[in-house]
Amino acid sequence: MDFTPEFPNLNRYSGWAIFSLILIGYVILYIINIFLPLDFSFPFEYQNLTSRIWSWTELLLGVGAIMNLFINRAGFSTSGLIRGIILGIISGASHYGMNQSLTDGILTGLLVLVCYVSALTIFRTGHGVPGISFQESPVYILRLILFGIIISVPFACINLGYFYLNQGLLLSPGIIDAIFLACNPAISEEIIFRFFPVILTFALLRNESSDRRTLCAVIFIGVVPHSLNHLPELFVTNPIGAVIMCILTSLLFGLPMCLLQLYKGLPSACGFHWFVDMTRFLAGY
Question: Is residue 144 part of a domain?
Fold first, then answer.
């Protein structure tokens, strides 16, 4: 792997205990989301089960990131904060462009900032070489983003084919809007749902397991919950179809983006994610 972050003061196997509690907590939260009526939503009003589980997991990851920031505050850096602010502004502005909700835009920007900076503190308190996370030169970052875009082309075609078969042709919002609106999922989802939990999981487990077991856990946490968050309505209407869809989306989209983060860096994963969503938005889906 490209990084070896360290989580301080963990007893033997306590990392696996924490990791297991995180997974159990997510499963319980997911079940509650499916069975709890939308009328009982908290802390906001939600249109559907997907938006609710998305919001809940985002907020909980943000709380976890703040806790980690306090634990690893010695690894805080001004340069990381500045990069986090820039990424948060881009993502938040893009989110605002999607639904014209200032609250959602600000919240997304803050969550991106907190999760990004928190992940960097794990890097800086470790003893290994940190992963690629937008700290490189602009030219190198652009090359990584372009690499992710190139890799994503066949996956974007598969994605468009799926939406076309299910919805037919739709009206495009225009290329400028598609380019801008795709920035939010590319940044926020890759940082909040993958970058921070992947690094945290690796830090928790790297001293307790073989590289293979740790890698499996890291990939699982970086792929499966994110895929499941898209599917709560389908689990209600067609559980078997939801399981199949979770497997397919995990293999076709979550896994490539997670592997890009691990082996080519965060910018490449963002580039992959951006192109897949940009082409979808451009086609009107």
Answer: yes
Handedness of CA 253, 194, 237, 20 (dihedral sign): positive
47: pLDDT confidence band, cut at 50, 70 and 90?
A: confident
**The dihedral of CA 230, 236, 241, 242: what is its sign?**
positive
Contact assessment for residue 193 and residue 61, using Cβ atoms and an 8 Å cutoff: yes
Looking at this protein, which amino acid is placed at residue 86?
I
Please determine, for residue 272, whether its predicted confidence score (pLDDT) is greater than 50. yes
3-class DSSP assignment, residue 267: helix
In a domain, 126, yes or no: yes
Tokens of 202: 């690796």
Whether residue 112 lies inside any domain: the answer is yes
Read off the pLDDT band of 208 (50, 70, 90). Answer: confident
Q: What is the total count of domains within the chain?
A: 1
**Average per-residue pLDDT for the chain:** 90
Helix (H, G, I), strand (E, B) or coil at 47: coil
262 neighbors 198 (Cβ within 8 angstroms): yes
Decide if 88 contacts 110 (C-beta within 8 A).
yes
Asked if the structure places residue 9 within a domain, the reply is no
- Supply the range of the domain harboring residue 148: 14-282
The pLDDT of residue 132: 80
Q: Do residues 151 and 269 make contact, with C-beta atoms less than 8 angstroms apart?
A: no
